[in-house]
Structure prediction request, 220 residues.
Amino acid sequence: MRYHHTIIRAVALAGLAAALPASAVSLSSTTPPQLLPANELASSPLEHWTAGSAMLVPLMAADGPAEQAGGVEVPAAKAAGTAGKAVDDVAFVRQATESGRKEVASARNALPQLKNPALKDLAQMLVQDHSNANSKLSRIAVDKGWPVPGPQAEPPPPAGQDASDFDQKWTAEMIAGHERSVKLFRAQAQSGEDKELREFARDTLPTIEHHLAELRKLQK
Prediction:
């Protein structure tokens, strides 16, 4: 406050000196200390200070930190990030269970009609592997109190059992189903919320990918 009064006084005296005639400020050495000429005051570091600006600067300084903090504040939603949306665990249980049951039923029904011995072996593998995976998934869901799809009616046997291209049609159907399963299990393994369910998806995914690779090799 004392510094502020000094600035105002200096500016006022400078204005007074500029308004007076030159003789009024040209005093002998025996008189009291004379005022500085206006041009010397103008060359001082305070040349841009005025009474108004001297009052505004403290307010600007007080507002500065608040504005700076507001400029770098990150909303909570952005800080959390939106990348990699988690797969809903209950929805995964339902989709994986229904998909696994369909693949087991389709492979079991196709066994008597498949002509290629390699496809028969693969179909038997599908029945065993997917049955085991379905049982494990069901136990996880029951322990957590999640709903598990009830038993469903067996799908009808694949169409065209007697056709010469039955092996090819069944293989194409299994490839499409396993491609969907790979995407489902991969998403759950990466983004699932429940740790045990993520581990189940990670452990089961290589088996499904192996089925898919074998099916593609046997596709004509």
User: Anything to note?
Assistant: The chain has a mean pLDDT of 72. DSSP finds nine helices and no strands in the chain. The CA atoms of residues 140 and 197 lie 8 Å apart. The first helix runs from residue 2 to 19.
